[in-house]
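User: Please predict structures.

Assistant: First:
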Amino acid sequence: MPPTSPEFAQFPHMPILPRQHDLFPADLLDADSPAVAPAAQWLAFYTLSRREKDLMRKLEAVGIPFYAPLIRRRLKSPGGRTRDSHVPLFPGYVFSCVDDDQRRAALATNTVARWLPIADGAALLADLRGIKQLIDTDCPLTPEARIEPGQLVRVRTGALRGLEGTVVRRHGEQRLVVAVRFLNQGASVELEDVDLERL
């Protein structure tokens, strides 16, 4: 017998799912992570439309490491109720550090349109660490589809300490943009009373 609660009546086709992991294993971005196979290299899987989370679940199920940053979005229903959803920061992309066997296993999931090798894995890893640090602050983030040139800075204090990025102006406010250079995309957070130093 189907549920008859008001919540079910309002969202009859929308199951409430717990937030899924966007990083597997948890220490993947650490220096010398044991999750990284000796012959592994960083690459980007470009997924079929809206299949990022599906690919992430399948990779985790078979033990293949990945990072696909999810950010919180607050959505309002027509009835005025608010709920949180977690959406990909970089739609279509799942980053993974894999060897050839793991790459083939990922392609066999039927969720990947193509894969892109990353020439500078160390630079990507540094960028992904910065993005994760920004997301972990739980500050409201704005996806940045195109990075504009600006002053390079490092944050000296607070929750963002050590984070490097570019200062830009958007709609009259200063924002710190942290980018993934491989994609020329990133995320930004508003700068309020943050101690910065030029690089």
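Second:
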Amino acid sequence: MNRKILLHICCGVCASAAAQRLQREGFEVTGFFYNPNIHPPEEYRRRLEAAQAVAAKLHFTIAQGPYDTQSWFAAVKGMEQEKEGGRRCQACFQIRLEASYRKALEAGFAYFTTTLTISPHKESGLISRIGKSLDKDMFLDYDFKTEDGFKKAMQFSREQQIYRQHFCGCIFSARQVK
């Protein structure tokens, strides 16, 4: 049975607990870092490096999607003033899960899922609905917050000195945090 799964990764911190859980459950994890929403480019680089460090520590490979900020800005145009968790976030989840699904199909993965559900600030049900709308059989519906996923991710990041960000990644969210 094909146990290969493509794990969309938003950041190294979230990747740690999600990848460990999938590995414990017998999946062969490949990470996919696709986040055109992250700004500025220096923040994107820090998060990519953190994800790569986690992949090295947990012994899984990681692929990088294109850093296509122009497409992301076009997709969220008109939603710049939305609060975090609103329509802009839904559009952002859609973009990243669609790219992950395409990558999973192209590379012959049996399944795909995302680390996005580990955050207590993200609505897992919404993320699940988007993933299932793409392919109800290929999308594995994990709420990585369960089983103390977020707590384990924070602990791992402290112990392994993994970069931990303080906003979702998009420039509009960063402005709301300040």
